[in-house]
Amino acid sequence: MTEISASGTMKPETPERQGVIINKKKSPLYKSFGYAFYGIYSVIKKERNMKIHCGAAILVIIFGIWLSISKAEWIACLIQIALVMSLEMVNTAVESTVDLVTEEKDPRAKLAKDAAAGAVLTAAIFAAIIGGMIFLPKIAALLV
């Protein structure tokens, strides 16, 4: 809604006039990193699936060291770890947001949650395939 000032000029509607509070001063960069690290910590602490992903990542790192995987193989493994864990955090954010805005059974809310979970599952499946391609031949060579 536009207001007309005492002088007759039109004053455009601003977020402040709509009751929206705008923080014009950004917090320092170190605080942003603090929030991000707290987000990672919170998801690891509260989400069962993230604990499983962390356990899998630790196993990959242990086996990678033990089997002396190449630099390229390390890069592939670390990218997969980062992808799965990042998607798990996004999934948690989507689920939390959906739960915050609706308590009703809504097919759109279900789709949002299912799609986010599906993204994690897809990444985890491909991470397992890539891990198998890297680790299984090395383990098989040790058994022969």
Describe the structure in your own words.
The chain starts with a strand and ends with a helix. The protein is built from 4 helices and 2 strands, in the order ββαααα. The model has no long low-confidence stretch (mean pLDDT 89). 11% of the residues are buried. Strands 1-2 form a two-stranded antiparallel sheet. It is globular, with a radius of gyration of 24 Å. The chain has one domain: Helix Hairpins. The chain has 144 residues and is mainly alpha-helical. A hairpin with a 5-residue loop joins strand 1 and strand 2.
Summed up, what is this model?
This protein is mostly helical and 144 residues long. It has helices at 29-46, 48-66, 71-101, 107-143; strands spanning 3-4, 10-11. The chain has one domain (28-143): Helix Hairpins, CATH 1.10.287.3610.
Note the quaternary state here: single chain
Indicate the structural class: mainly alpha
Helix content class = over 70%
* Mass-distribution shape: globular
Give the topology string: H per helix, E per strand: EEHHHH
Question: What's the Cα radius of gyration?
Answer: 24 Å
Question: What fraction of residues sit in β-strands?
Answer: under 5%
- Widest sheet, order of strands: 1-2
First and last CA, distance? 78 Å
CATH architecture descriptor: Orthogonal Bundle
Average pLDDT works out at 89
